[in-house]
Structures are given as C-alpha cells and as structure tokens.
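Sample intake — Sigma-70 family RNA polymerase sigma factor
Collected from: Macrococcus hajekii
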Amino acid sequence: MEVLEAQKTKIIQFIEKLPDLDNKIIKLRYIDNMPLKEIASELGYSEQYIRNKHSQVKKLIKMVNV
C-alpha cells in the first residue's frame, strides 16, 4: 500500500506542474470522469485537439515512470 500511495502522490505532483490546459484536461478526465468530447466543448477546443493533448500527457506520465 505504501508504494501505491507514493505513486499516487508522485502523479498528483506531476499533474500540478503541467501547463494549465494539460492540467485541466487530466483533472476533468480522471477526477470529474468527463468524456473527451465534453472536455473539448467546455474548454473551447476541437475534440481531436483535446484527444491529441490527452494522448501527449499520458505519454509524458508514462515517460517519467509515475
């Protein structure tokens, strides 16, 4: 359990350091459980743009081995 808590803390710290748009996308997607289509509408971007940004951020998270 300690390992999971440490990973969770590390992920949260990483997300907080993301640029504003990336941070919003991740929070809306994984905290508010909002579909990417709704996130795009709420933030005023195309769905494809939000999908691309979401994919980029997920790759970043995996790269830092969080």
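Post-analysis note: The mean pLDDT is 90.
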